[in-house]
Amino acid sequence: MKKILYLDDSRAALLLLTRLLKDFVEVLPASTIDEAERMMSEKNIELFLVDYTLGEKNGIDFSRDVRKHTEYSKTPIIMVTASYSEQLAYQAMHVGINECFPKPIEKNSFKQVITKQLDKPYTVEVVPTTLSMKCYAWEKSGFFYQYAPQIEQLVRDTSSEGVSKKMQELLRIKLKDQLDAFEFIVEKAAVHHTVNIKN
Question: Which domains are present in the chain?
Answer without folding.
Answer: 3-119 (3.40.50.2300), 131-199 (3.30.160)
